[in-house]
Amino acid sequence: MGTFKIEGGHQLSGEITPQGAKNEALQILCAVLLTEEEVTVNNIPDILDVNKLISLLEDLGVKIRKKGKGSYTFKADDVNLDYLQSDQFKEDGRGLRGSIMLVGPLLARFGKGYIPKPGGDKIGRRRLDTHFEGFIKLGAKFRYNKEELFYGVEAKKLKGTYMLLDEASVTGTANIVMASVLAEGKTTIYNAACEPYLQQLCKMLNRMGTNISGIGSNLLVIEGVDALGGTEHTMLPDMIEIGSWIGLAAMTKSELTVKNVSWDDLGQIPTVFRKLGITIERKGDDIHIPAHKDGYEIQNFLDGSILTVADAPWPGLTPDLLSIILVMATQAKGEVLIHQKMFESRLFFVDKLIDMGAKIILCDPHRATVIGHNFKSNLKGTTMVSPDIRAGISLLIAALSAKGTSTIHNIEQIDRGYEHIDTRLRAIGAKITRV
Ligand SMILES: CC(=O)N[C@H]1[C@@H](OP(=O)(O)OP(=O)(O)OC[C@H]2O[C@@H](n3ccc(=O)[nH]c3=O)[C@H](O)[C@@H]2O)O[C@H](CO)[C@@H](O)[C@@H]1O
Ligand SMILES: C=C(OP(=O)(O)O)C(=O)O
Question: Ligand 2 centre from 238 Cα, in Å?
């Protein structure tokens, strides 16, 4: 179990270039299985989850060549399907959440897809019904081995159809889209998720030869084709990482510039931070956050009631930023209710923030009220364990702003989605070491 030691209370300054998007990368890398031709992918983040998926693809027989930093070619012209039944796959496949999206492309191209119950954050129930109900609608037979927690779908040929998803699942939609591109005829998916990750995936699939319309909406229409060709794809910057840098700048009263953020793909994110009182300046495609020397003040709703920040499927606010917004609110002037609607165990980390001196009431597993200190009282350094990726980065931000030294254990949770975070933080003046 890795550990960070952090000396808090230092102002940071400088420029940060965001990594490529983790959740997009997990979709795109699975999509390389849809063609026997070469696919080039750029701006791949060097993070644990993505590296695990690359190694799974390698074990599946995909030929992988590194071209440069974050740039790889993939050629899935000789896929080893026997690997899917191996004990090694049952072990490695559960190592990350994104591996679930291997199933759709494998089912579409080879008529069978298997996966052990995937890992990812322990942030509440993470059901897979949407994925498998979609595959079944396309004509696949489903089986589940309860002892081994091993899922399987098989079909000679998938057939396009209409489906109304039970929820707008991000990885579920990606999986079903990837299955339907090689299905016979037209597939219509209503209540589809439409995060930029999915928009990017659909654009890539169109470049590979399919015809998907409705990209960016919750109604996707996919015209299946017999075979897909190669392409080149470049990942968007990671919007969750961008939000994390904004939170860090505010909490440490630092002036930071986040480079090349792809503003038009950030949706509500800048608006929500502004409601929390953060000054966010657009400079070309960069975000500039000035040092908040006099703090930041949370706005109320128009009728004077307390602001609520809640997650929702895109174009609502992504749930992955709520922990970061929550930690930032602990030093704001004013109050906010954080409502994490999607996951039921993602707010328990507030106990640690309360230990550090933050004023938070955990109302129930989904809601926490934060009463900001307005920098009149510092958080105090402590020892903590990172429970999940976003709680981990939030505790790290708290530690960097706190008085004294903090220790964070289980930092693999942070490394899962943040590229060389300690090195990049040191480059802007943070006192952090990996021990
Ligand atoms: C690898 C990856 O891409 N992971 C992301 C993906 O996970 P993932 O695709 O696993 O998450 P889903 O979109 O399937 O669902 C997330 C949770 O929200 C609930 N739900 C979902 C849709 C809905 O309309 N109502 C609802 O309540 C689900 O029951 C589930 O508990 O999307 C999540 C939701 O943005 C993000 O937190 C994860 O970072
Ligand atoms: C929950 C997350 O990731 P995963 O779905 O991979 O667990 C996240 O990125 O915040």
Answer: 13
Q: Hey, whose CA ends up nearest to atom 2 of ligand 2?
A: 121
Inter-axis angle of helices 103-110 and 170-180, nearest 10? 10
Judgement on whether residues 13 and 62 belong to the same structural domain of the protein: no
Structure ipTM over 0.90, yes or no: yes
- Regions in the chain scoring below 50 on pLDDT: none
Cα–Cα distance list, 75 to 32, 40, 89, 253, 279 (Å): 7, 9, 20, 47, 45
Does 374 share its domain with 323?
A: yes
User: If we measure between CA atoms, which residue out of 346, 345, 304, 344 comes closest to residue 325?
Assistant: 346
Tell me which residue range forms the domain holding 35.
22-234
The answer on 278 and 421 residing in a single domain is yes
Q: How far is CA 310 from CA 286, 305, 364, in A?
A: 26, 15, 14
pLDDT of amino acid 202: 98
User: Which string of DSSP letters, residue by residue, matches 29-56?
Assistant: HHHGGG-SSEEEEES----HHHHHHHHH
Which ligand minimizes its atom distance to the CA of 25?
Answer: 1
Residue 42 confidence (pLDDT) = 98
Residues 217 and 242 in one domain: no
Q: Is 121 in the pocket of ligand 2 (CB under 6 A)?
A: yes
8 with 36, same domain?
no
Measured from the CB, is residue 195 less than 6 Å from ligand 2?
no
What confidence tens digit (pLDDT) does each residue in 299-355 have?
Answer: 999 999 999 999 999 999 999 999 999 999 999 999 999 999 999 999 999 999 999
Question: Per-residue DSSP letters for 223-245?
Answer: E--S----EEEEPPB-HHHHHHH
pLDDT, residue 148, reads 85
Q: Residue 211 sits in a domain of what CATH number?
A: 3.65.10.10
Active-site residue 355, yes or no?
no
Q: Are residues 345 and 392 in the same domain?
A: yes
Cα 125 to ligand 1 centroid, rounded to whole Å: 10
**258: CA distance to ligand 2 center in Å?**
22
pLDDT of residue 126: 87
Residues 350 and 391 in one domain: yes
Consecutive H or E run containing 3: strand 3-7
Which of 219, 234, 249 represents a domain boundary (last residue)?
234
Of 46, 82, 92, 121, which is the active-site residue?
Answer: 121
Q: How many domains is the chain partitioned into structurally?
A: 2
Provide the pLDDT for residue 120: 67
User: 234, 257, 286 — which closes off a domain?
Assistant: 234
For residues 229 and 297, membership in a common domain is answered with no
Residue 412 tokens, joined: 């693999």
Nearest CA to ligand 2 atom 4: 120
